[in-house]
Amino acid sequence: MALAKTCCGAIKRFRLELPNFMNPPPITVLQGARTYKQHSYRYNKELYRRRLKVGPIEVTPRSKQLNWNEDVELEAFTHRISEKLSRVGVRQAFTDMSYSRSTAQLVKEVIGDSVQGQELDALDTSAGNEQMAESGDNLARKFIKDFIKVQFPHLPEEGVGSILEFLMSTGKLAHVGKHLGITDLILYDVPLVSLINEEQGEERACAFVRDFIITQLIGEDIDAIFPITSAMTRLVGLLEKKGQGEPISRLLEHCGQATAVSCYFVGIYSDNELIGKAPGETLEIAEEMAAHDALMSLYGIQENRLPFDFNTTYKQYGILNSGTQPTLLSSEQH
């Protein structure tokens, strides 16, 4: 009887409170209020402390990853440079002598007793790219030097050497190799020149040097690569060698002499012909800059010069043989 009374009372209370459950009062939401979890700060701080304790993450090269396939990468590289090269030759061109020696040493430690000494010595010396790098470097330097002489026939040997060293510097070759997609293979692409020369011929090797190395001169300031010092002294010697008259400085324009921003415009004349002009804060600076402008015009490296002609086909034995003047052939005559 008592249980029945208790159940009836519970049912009555549920019926009275049912409308409140079905229609709850509206909840006021604060716009722009930010919630903050107290454990987040301590958790993130601990993660940051552990990250500093472990140190920076070591970058895993592509060649160390599980899905690396060297044969596929070598085949893809030959298609990128549009050359038909043997896979064995490309692998040898990408194998540095230090890696070859370390591999030979590992073979000696593992199976040294079962392999003869002559075979180990052959493994130590034959798999490296030292000879290919040397021959490729010589061919690339010779072609680049002759190419620069064709483009700038009046540039002195000092300027030719400066441009040559700029193109053959380690940083520039590494830049070319990176954008050819061989970062995980090798960072020095000169052995490729020797490989292309052996398998495709000298013409294709020179075309590779022209297309991927010499094109790095596009957009570069030749004056920054070959800085001209003592411009007036150089100009006097150059004009004397060419049989022209001595340079004569003339003040063309000037303004603001009594102010802090004075400007003098000086021109350099030789045989009554204007060969250079430039402004300057003082007469001495303007004269030196005018001589600098005259030298750039005489050398053919002025800012308004014609762009490089990469479409011209070069006679291989006219541009590469020492002691001969480089000659050009148009694409129609070739």
TrEMBL record:
Keywords: Mitochondrion, Ribonucleoprotein, Ribosomal protein, Transit peptide
One cellular-component annotation, GO: mitochondrion
Matching InterPro entries: Ribosomal_mL44_DSRM_metazoa, RM44_endonuclase, RNase_III_sf
GO molecular-function terms, A-Z: double-stranded RNA binding; ribonuclease III activity
Subcellular location: Mitochondrion
Ranges of residues in domain Large ribosomal subunit protein mL44 endonuclease: 69-188
Large ribosomal subunit protein mL44 dsRNA binding domain ranges (all copies): 226-316
Entry superkingdom: Eukaryota
Chief location category: mitochondrion
An individual GO BP term: RNA processing
Family to which the UniProt record says this protein belongs: Belongs to the ribonuclease III family. Mitochondrion-specific ribosomal protein mL44 subfamily.
Name this polypeptide is given: Large ribosomal subunit protein mL44
Species name: Bugula neritina (Brown bryozoan)
